[in-house]
Amino acid sequence: MRTVPSAESILNEALKGNPNVDVNSLHHETFYLMIQYRSKYYERRVNEILSELNLSQEVHEKVKRKLLEPIVVGDKEYSNFMEEVSRRVSQAFQPVSGHLAELCAQRELERAGLKKDYHFTRRKERTDFIIYYPNLLSPKARHRVEVKNVSLRERATRGLAFDGDSLFGFFNQLSEFTESNVEVFEALCIKTNGYCYIPPDILRQIPYAKTRFRPNTQFGTDMAAFAKTGRIP
Question: Under DSSP, is residue 3 helix (H, G, I), strand (E, B) or coil?
Fold first, then answer.
């Protein structure tokens, strides 16, 4: 039994309500759906376990509420007791979350008119996306893009330094964009002629100089321009 639907299924479900939704709203909706599916899984499992016991409805509900309460173990917070003991769910959550971020980025490329395996490839040569000028069949130049989800962390710097020319993400912690971090990404992007594409709300709040930072809503049009001209305007 799957604990969470596939990333593709969640993305398609999110797009049903509004096919023209912007990329940040889409990511927010897919993340919300993923959390909802996880909560429903926990509740279903608890009900299945408690249904095997001869409990009154009142006791059943009290026990269920207790099992589904958020808990803190050491310095880690879990959404409920079931998550703390269920490594299977924890292991399923992270790859789906990362996959969703990549699918959101791919949708931006496709909305800008780029075609997979013609204008761009995914997960090739240790990077998430490679955009080709003018195309994969007769490449004269290419631009590598590393995709991250909601946390910057150290591996984002490593990814951009070794496997990417630009960085695309849905970062939601302004505190991660310290002056030193911004300087590091600025320097890396200058070397690669790339940019850091981040949510507009976070971008507006960064107080430091950031010539190489752009809203992630601009990602698709920038990559389409690269596929046409071999450079990002």
Answer: coil
Range from 15-19, 90-94, 121-125, 162-166 carrying the lowest mean pLDDT:
90-94
Residue range 90-129, pLDDT digits in tens: 666 778 888 999 999 999 999 999 999 999 999 998 899 9
Whole-angstrom distance between the N-terminal and C-terminal Cα of the chain? 47
pTM of the full structure? 0.76
User: From CA 20, how far away is CA 101, in angstroms rounded?
Assistant: 17
